[in-house]
């Protein structure tokens, strides 16, 4: 990962006499709202990294801010408000992680499928990893220990790898390598020893290194450049709209994978992915429309499915592309209209006919 610490500054430390902090301690909820408003987005991203779900991040952030509001009278102002809120948000996420199932992708559940099932069935009992809309990603100040760029640290491979870590290791890695807090600061945040933090950090780094490709998507996107990236994403979407399997295959890496949570099946390798594309999305599905978007710091396409070319097309998936060079190495189609709402995308486009079905 890139060392992004150069030129970064530590958390700004608001003065204890901040008028809104004084008012908040006296019970002024509007003043408290003004204090936390600039930090809400970055805290939400932190909760997403910890929990792997926008919905869970919503709940955790709401609970964390409620805890902060109840405890603001005990915040002396000697330390940064931002650090204090990150400590509360981290502990809230750790509490949530003990009562919720680990978020997963289809690759975590079993081997790739060797054939296309007659009818894919959603696995509703699985807690699926979800996508994060780029419109919500924000970059807060990083400390001198930060090793990851903020957008690198929300990429699908990284967030998926985090879900395999115990909560304390996940927190240590994010607070140190992503946000740049010192080991001593993290030990205070998590009410533990610096020895425990160092141990958790070392173990977390080993696990993440095994699961995350050495080249991040941010590095790949910079190498490709905006023009080539735009052409690639446009060609990918056009292959769907034309239902052109050959055009799609021409964009894919030999070892490409395709998964579609909440469906458990996933496909690995050019032949398997081509067979699936031929039989289902580009063979059985009547008509596609698309809109470009982005998720987890990666290019994405919102796909809409309709009964015919002139009728209404309803949201089917937010499909996130993982690139290697100028080829698509991973396709992750997050199926469901609920994702469209999160991404501020229309849930349907086109005319008046009923939703198409893909089987």
Automatic annotation (TrEMBL):
A Pfam family in this protein?
A: Sigma70_r4_2
- Report domain SnoaL-like positions: 233-329
**Organism superkingdom:** Bacteria
What organism does this protein naturally occur in? Answer: Micromonospora andamanensis
Under Gene3D superfamilies, the record lists:
1.10.1740.10, 3.10.450.50, Winged helix-like DNA-binding domain superfamily/Winged helix DNA-binding domain
Cite the RNA polymerase sigma-70 region domain residue spans from the record: 35-103
Disordered: annotated segments: 1-22
Concerning PANTHER family, the annotation shows: ECF RNA POLYMERASE SIGMA FACTOR SIGG (PTHR43133:SF65), RNA POLYMERASE ECF-TYPE SIGMA FACTO (PTHR43133)
Print the keywords alphabetically: Sigma factor, Transcription, Transcription regulation
Q: Which residues cross the membrane?
A: none
Which positions fall inside the RNA polymerase sigma factor 70 region 4 type domain? 157-206
Quaternary structure, per UniProt, is:
Interacts transiently with the RNA polymerase catalytic core formed by RpoA, RpoB, RpoC and RpoZ (2 alpha, 1 beta, 1 beta' and 1 omega subunit) to form the RNA polymerase holoenzyme that can initiate transcription.
Homology family: Belongs to the sigma-70 factor family. ECF subfamily.
Can you say what this protein is called? Answer: ECF RNA polymerase sigma factor SigG
InterPro entries the record matches: NTF2-like_dom_sf, RNA_pol_sigma-70-like, RNA_pol_sigma-70_dom, RNA_pol_sigma-G_actinobac, RNA_pol_sigma70_r2, RNA_pol_sigma70_r4_t2, RNA_pol_sigma_r2, RNA_pol_sigma_r3/r4-like
């Amino acid at each position: 990962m890139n060392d992004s610490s150069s030129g970064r500054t530590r958390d700004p430390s608001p003065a204890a006499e901040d008028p809104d902090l004084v008012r908040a301690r006296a019970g002024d909820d509007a003043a408290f709202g003004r204090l936390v408003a600039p930090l809400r987005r970055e805290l939400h991203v932190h909760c997403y990294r910890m929990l792997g779900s926008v919905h869970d991040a919503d709940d955790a952030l709401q609970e964390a801010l409620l805890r902060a509001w109840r405890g603001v009278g005990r915040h002396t102002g000697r330390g940064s408000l931002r650090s204090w809120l990150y400590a509360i948000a981290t502990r809230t996420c750790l509490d949530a992680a003990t009562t919720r199932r680990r978020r997963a992708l289809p690759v975590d559940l079993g081997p790739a499928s060797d054939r296309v099932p007659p009818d894919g069935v959603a696995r509703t009992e699985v807690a699926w990893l979800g996508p994060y809309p780029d419109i919500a990603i924000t970059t807060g100040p990083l400390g001198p220990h930060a090793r990851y760029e903020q957008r690198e640290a929300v990429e699908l491979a990284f967030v998926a790898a985090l879900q395999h870590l115990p909560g304390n290791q996940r927190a240590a890695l994010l607070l140190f390598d992503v946000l740049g807090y010192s080991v001593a600061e993290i030990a205070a945040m998590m009410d533990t020893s610096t020895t425990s933090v160092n141990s958790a950090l070392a173990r977390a780094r080993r696990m993440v290194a095994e699961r995350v490709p050495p080249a991040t998507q941010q590095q790949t996107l910079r190498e490709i450049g905006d023009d080539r990236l735009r052409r690639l994403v446009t060609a990918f979407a056009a292959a769907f709209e034309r239902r052109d399997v050959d055009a799609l295959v021409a964009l894919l890496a030999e070892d490409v994978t395709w998964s579609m949570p909440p469906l458990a099946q996933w496909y690995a390798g050019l032949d398997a992915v081509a067979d699936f594309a031929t039989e289902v999305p580009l063979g059985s599905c009547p008509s596609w429309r698309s809109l470009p978007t982005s998720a987890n710091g990666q290019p994405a396409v919102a796909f809409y499915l309709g009964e015919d070319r002139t009728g209404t097309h309803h949201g089917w998936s937010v499909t996130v592309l993982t690139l290697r060079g100028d080829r698509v190495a991973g396709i992750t189609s997050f199926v469901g209209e609920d994702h469209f709402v999160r991404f501020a995308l229309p849930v349907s486009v086109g005319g008046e006919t009923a939703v198409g079905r893909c089987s």
